[in-house]
Predict the structure.
Amino acid sequence: MYKKYKNLIKDHVPTRSEQLWLSYITYITTKNGHNHISIIRELTYQKDNNLSSLKHNPN
C-alpha cells in the first residue's frame, strides 16, 4: 500500500542538539475527505546513552 523506507539513521548517534530530527506522518480518512497528521521531533544523545526527544524552543 505505502512505500516503507529503510532506516537511514541506524548507526548515527547525535552528540548535540539539532543533529537528528524525526518525522511521523499518519493519514486519516474523515467524512470530509483525507487528512494527514505530521509530527516532527528533535532527538539528542543523553549521558545515560538513551535518545530522548527535546521540546523545541524557538527563542
